[in-house]
């Protein structure tokens, strides 16, 4: 018996054009809307992610929570030459599927997957993965870890002035501690992007993404 994510991978392979990221994203969205709900960021909030990437043109994007590769593909397809996405995913099975879908989209050279738990991987980014700074961080793993992991990124001096943090699901399921932290810190300039989303039960709920721009010298 296959898992939902294996079925998603097979569907995406069979219903998209190899080397064509947009068709891969569309196949993900169609699987989730027509067949089985999946937890990727989706088109509505994906547009907010696209805009943030287009505005910043980051060299290094860090994604915490890559699942099956949808948002990694969304980011990588817009990067300029030399740009890359580092995806951190604690499930080996999801990380393998993400590698597969990213390769299928033709973006394998731009996305590096690290399998591990965010709070363990972040302190190793410099020493073990050659990442000295991150320009863009997509927080999409566990809302309860958003603040801890952001503080880890600060402590390990991985952020610099102008680095952008985009956090998903800040209203649903919700990340109140994270919102309080970034809104209350002089180091961050925040903007909220509301969005309605479809839940696993088929309900429509109000959610949103928080964009926080980091300023190193303000404290
Ligand atoms: C909402 S999904 C990510 C969706 C993905 N960003 C997308 O839009 O295609 C959350 C993912 O985070 C992973 N995850 C949860 N906690 C994590 C942690 N502490 N470290 C790394 N990955 C984690 C889960 O296994 C899951 O695949």
UniProtKB/TrEMBL annotation:
Family that this chain belongs to: Belongs to the class I-like SAM-binding methyltransferase superfamily. Cation-dependent O-methyltransferase family.
Classification via PROSITE patterns: SAM_OMT_I
Stored InterPro entries: SAM-dependent_MTases_sf, SAM_O-MeTrfase
The keyword Methyltransferase appears for this protein: yes
SUPFAM superfamilies the UniProt entry points to: S-adenosyl-L-methionine-dependent methyltransferases (SSF53335)
Native species: Branchiostoma belcheri (Amphioxus)
Keyword terms: Catecholamine metabolism, Methyltransferase, Neurotransmitter degradation, S-adenosyl-L-methionine, Transferase
Database matches in Gene3D superfamilies: Vaccinia Virus protein VP39 (3.40.50.150)
CDD domains reported for this sequence: AdoMet_MTases
MF-aspect GO terms: catechol O-methyltransferase activity
Protein name: catechol O-methyltransferase
Catalytic activity, EC: 2.1.1.6
GO biological process, alphabetically ordered: catecholamine catabolic process; developmental process; dopamine metabolic process; methylation
Membrane-spanning segments: none
């Amino acid at each position: 018996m296959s898992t939902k994510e294996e079925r998603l991978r097979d569907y995406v392979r069979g219903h998209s054009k190899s080397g064509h990221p947009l068709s891969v994203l569309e196949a993900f969205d169609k699987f989730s809307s027509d067949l089985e709900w999946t937890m990727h960021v989706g088109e509505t909030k994906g547009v907010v992610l696209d805009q943030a990437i287009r505005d910043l043109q980051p060299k290094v994007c860090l994604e915490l929570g890559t699942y099956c590769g949808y948002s990694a593909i969304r980011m990588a397809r817009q990067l300029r030459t030399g740009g890359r996405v580092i995806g951190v995913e604690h499930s080996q099975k999801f990380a393998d599927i993400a590698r597969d879908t990213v390769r299928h989209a033709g973006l394998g050279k731009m996305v590096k997957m690290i399998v591990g738990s965010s709070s363990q991987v972040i302190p190793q980014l410099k020493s073990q993965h050659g990442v000295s700074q991150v320009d863009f961080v997509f927080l999409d793993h566990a809302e309860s870890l958003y603040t801890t992991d952001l503080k880890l990124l600060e402590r390990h001096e991985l952020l610099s002035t102008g680095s952008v943090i985009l956090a998903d699901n800040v209203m649903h399921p919700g990340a109140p501690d994270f919102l309080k932290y970034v809104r209350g810190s002089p180091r961050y300039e925040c903007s909220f992007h509301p969005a309605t989303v479809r839940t696993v039960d088929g309900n429509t709920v109000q959610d949103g993404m928080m964009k926080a721009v980091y300023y190193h010298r303000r404290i």
